[in-house]
Amino acid sequence: MAAAMTQQQILHELEPVAERLMNRHISMFKDWNPHDFIPWSQGKNFKTPNGDDWAPEQCALSDVARVAMVQNLLTEDNLPSYHREIAMNFGMDGAWGQWVRRWTAEENRHSTALRDYLVVTRSVDPFDLERLRMEQLTRGFSPGQNRQGNLFAESLFDAVVYVSFQELATRVSHRNTGKACHDSIADQLMARLSHDENLHMIFYRDITDAGLDVAPNQAMASIHRVLRNFQMPGFTVPEFRRKAVIIAVGGVYDPRIHLDEVVMPVLRKWRIFDREDFTGEAARMRDDLALLVKELETACDKFEISKQRYLEREARKAESITAAKTLRPDGTLSQSRH
């Protein structure tokens, strides 16, 4: 059995691939400006002289769209932590360093555009938003925070595999959030961000694909580890679970979307279940991934049942509220006449 390659050996072996993929990325990238996607004419002062304090009725977004937009912003805001992770694994020299800097510059504009949109359109309390942003950035992020140790600390493959899935998941979430806003400007903005995320995903996905040819067993170990422990980068956001439920029930990002639009397309691209170059423990991990896919299918079915029950409960609550509003002061029901 061949000895495992060191991280430096893998970096050296894949650097020509990184350079080729970065050049391809630049040729496909469509330049844009965050300020072009903000309805500045809607802006008003807040606490300065003649300003108006924020009020909930000023938000034109649905609860699902508002929660998703804020969650996306808080996720994008953690760029300093993401930069640290890929810089630690890729280094800052050669093609790898060029990609780190290019990727960071492109990602930096996402949070700027999202924050400007939310504040200018008064879609969120700016005081609460700044409090959440400060808390989120102070917490930082590492994909290994949801398990003991640091997921990225030991392997370059862990890094590129994780972002292959995460960038695609973010792309899907952004696109669906834009649609949920029912606002043409928000939809265009989120489509623009989604395009960036898709190009980033393609870079990382294809680096991993090349890595599977260079060191298949090591790459397989990372794929297995990442998918068995996968968490979106926004899991450190305060009240993440409650917000994730709202986003899932609203159809922005749910277990079925995760499986059908993120996990399976990437696994198919890598031909994980068709390759014959995994040996020993890596072959066992590949078989376990097939079991994981079945587990995710079961989770999708359970979620749909839970979602339906949740929607039925919410409908009953709405009916009760409507009925209560029709009561006369003496407690009897009033009848509407048409």
Automatic annotation (TrEMBL):
InterPro entries hit by this protein: Fatty_acid_desaturase-2, Ferritin-like_SF, RNR-like
CDD domains: Acyl_ACP_Desat
One of the Pfam families matching this protein, by short name: FA_desaturase_2
Keyword terms: Fatty acid biosynthesis, Fatty acid metabolism, Iron, Lipid biosynthesis, Lipid metabolism, Metal-binding, Oxidoreductase
Cofactors demanded by this protein: Fe(2+)
UniProt keyword annotation of Signal present: no
Family from the record: Belongs to the fatty acid desaturase type 2 family.
Subunit architecture: Homodimer.
Cited PANTHER family: ACYL- ACYL-CARRIER-PROTEIN DESATURASE-RELATED, STEAROYL-[ACYL-CARRIER-PROTEIN] 9-DESATURASE 7, CHLOROPLASTIC
Protein name: Acyl-ACP desaturase
Species of provenance: Mycobacterium paraterrae
Lineage of source species: Bacteria, Bacillati, Actinomycetota, Actinomycetes, Mycobacteriales
